[in-house]
Amino acid sequence: AQAGWLCWIDADTVTTKPLTVEKVSALLPEKTELVHLGRKDVDYSETSFIGFNLNYESPIYMIADLRGCYDIGEVVSYREWHDGFIFERLLTSYRAHGMRVQDFTGHLDIKDLVKGKQAFESFPLSDFMEHLKGDRKLKVKGKPIPPAQRYKQLADIIRQYQPARVVET
């Protein structure tokens, strides 16, 4: 049996229409090892969606390297510490070693970003999902989330999972 695809979708992404495995699978090319949302005039990819094809070794190693950057503290030795920068650093290396990658949104440039267009909005799954990036976290389908409701959601999550630590970013 094949392992198949592992897809990372940011936690601040909401579904807006029913989405099936078949619809997602149709976007993921069988011979591709990784899919992502690139940007042309920015130093790093948008990491709100990444697909790792676990039928190949390279994506498995990349996931381990990505985690390892944080586990051993390597991340603090880089110019930028966020996931997009670290992902792009690893992606560059893995591409150089032959990883087959599909960039769904690499056509976007700085003019698109200045106009407020995000990579996720140019991705086919944006018909089914909305990435609540930045100030968008305060709205769903264009409607404001009352602050009290947002904090209630956070409190409910903390009560449910009882984390040992909470980090605000």
Provide an overview of this structure:
- α2 (57-71) packs antiparallel against α3.
- The longest helix has 15 residues, at 57-71.
- The strands form three sheets. A four-stranded mixed β-sheet has the order 1-4-3-5, covered by helices on one side. The protein has a two-stranded antiparallel sheet with strand order 2-6.
- The chain has helices spanning 21-25, 57-71, 83-96, 110-114, 147-161; strands at 5-9, 13-15, 34-37, 46-53, 101-103, 129-131, 139-140, 143-144.
- The chain is globular, with a radius of gyration of 17 Å.
- By secondary structure, it is α+β, with helices and mostly antiparallel strands.
> Could you say which structural class the secondary elements and strand pairing correspond to?
alpha+beta
The number of strands is 8
Give the distance, in angstroms, between the N- and C-terminal Cα atoms: 40 Å
The major beta sheet can be summarized as: 4 strands, mixed
H/E element string?
EEHEEHHEHEEEH
Mean pLDDT: 83
Shape: globular
The portion of residues forming beta strands comes to 15-25%
